[in-house]
Amino acid sequence: MNVKKWLTITSRGCARLTQSPPSVRANEISIRLEINLPNELFRKPRLEAKIDIPKEAAGPDCMNSEVVENVQEAIKQATGLEFSINVIKPEEPKDD
Question: Could you report the per-residue pLDDT of 8-54, keeping only the tens digit for each?
């Protein structure tokens, strides 16, 4: 993408950006800007994750913290992303 604009700055530091050459006052200067940006800069990365949990893993009620740390480390090594996993024990239903 190629962007061409005019940046006008006053002696007091105020600035404005215009599409066409501006008329400038005595206390202003105008600078023609041409900015070349790669289109890829505007493409947002799409993050995807797929987690398969086999039936055999549904055994114990408690997950070992070592397992959580190993999963976090594996994700970090594979993707370079910091990943946080929290195991939250479900609340017991309250009897009113």
Answer: 999 999 999 999 999 999 999 999 999 998 888 888 777 677 777 67
Q: Is 10 left (phi over 0), alpha (psi -120 to 50) or beta?
A: beta
Report yes or no on whether pTM surpasses 0.85: no
Q: Show the 3-state SS of 24-79.
A: CCCCEEEEEEEEECCHHHHCCCCCCCCCCCCHHHHCCCCCCHHHHHHHHHHHHHHH
Contact between residue 28 and residue 7 where contact means Cβ atoms under 8 Å apart:
no
Amino acid 75: pLDDT: 78
For 20, the enclosing helix (H) or strand (E) is: none
Collect all residues with Cβ–Cβ distance below 8 Å to 2 and sequence separation of at least 6.
Answer: 34, 35, 36, 37
* Residue keyed to tokens 């114990």: 60
